Structures are given as structure tokens and as C-alpha cells.
Amino acid sequence: MDKKKELDTILNERMPVLVEFFTDLEAPQAYAVLTDAEKYVGFLDDFMKNQEVAEEDFQWIVTRIGYFIGEYLVQKFQGCWMENETPGSRTFDRIVTGRFSRLSNQSAMVDPFEVAVAFVHSSIPRSLNQLLQELNEELAGA
After folding, report:
1. What does residue 82 show for φ and ψ, rounded to 5 degrees?
2. Which of 21, 47, 76, 78 has the fewest CB atoms inside 10 Å of its own CB, making it the most exposed?
3. pLDDT tens string 36-69
């Protein structure tokens, strides 16, 4: 799939997928994750803390957590989903979140799916709260 189609797929499916995911998890007012993702960090943190992820479920959960992390960053730092077209950067030619207007470094970018993979692979008990706090600090200092 070319990057334009991949980005279009993410832009079109992330919102309904996130609402369905949080609805299935019985999160209160699951639709609000689309405008206030930060409110749902603790909920997802509790769900994933001791979650054993089977190999056949790995991509499914990484996709949802990647969408969540991306939306969290876009909302928190007023950014957008985009293709990284900066040759030589670590995330070149990947779909990332970036153009964060609330950060001093306008070239800061994050691959939310890379972060999600690292999170799901991390040792149990894992902490989404801690991961996002570290990512916030890294971006603020970038």
C-alpha cells in the first residue's frame, strides 16, 4: 500500500475503531475519546497493565493502541497525522503524528505505532501512563 493510501486508511478508520474499542471495553462515553483522549489514558492503562497479548492478537491491539497514542498526541500538542517526508530522519517514509503547534520544535514527529509496539512488548506490569509521561517530556524537550 502506498503511503497516501495508508494515511487515508488511518484517517478514515481511526475514529470509528477507537470508539468501538472503548465501547467494547465498556469505557464511559466512549465517543469522547475523539475529543478528550487524555481522559481515557488511565482507563486504557488499567486494561493493558497486566494484559497478556497472544501472538494472533498482537497486530489488532497494536493498531488500536497506536491510534490511541496518535490521537492523544494530536490533541495534546495540536498536531496532525501525516507522512514523514523528511529524508534522513529516523521515521522517514512512515505515517507519524507531527506539526505540533504547541511544541517549540515544529519538526518533532512520533510514529505512534512504533510506540505501541514497544508498549505491548514491554514487561508486565506495563504502564501507559508512564510511557506517555516520558513521551510528553521528550517532546517538550525536543
Report:
1. -165, 170
2. 78
3. 999 999 999 999 999 999 999 999 999 999 999 9
Q: Give the β-pairing of 95-98 and 80-83.
A: antiparallel
In sequence order, what are the residues at sequence separation of 6 or more whose Cβ sits closer than 8 angstroms to the Cβ of residue 115?
66, 69, 131, 135
Q: How far apart are CA 25 and CA 1, in angstroms?
A: 30
Q: Record the cell numbers describing residue 79, joined without a space.
A: 498536531
Q: How far is CA 49 from CA 5, 13, 67, 119, 129, in A?
A: 33, 26, 18, 10, 10
Q: What is the pLDDT of residues 19-42, one digit of tens each?
A: 999 999 999 999 999 999 999 999
- Whole-prediction pTM: 0.93
> Cβ(64)–Cβ(37) under 8 Å?
no
Distances (CA, A) of 132 to 23, 46, 135: 22, 14, 5
Residue carrying the nine cell digits 492503562: 45
Residue 124: which H helix or E strand, with range?
Answer: none
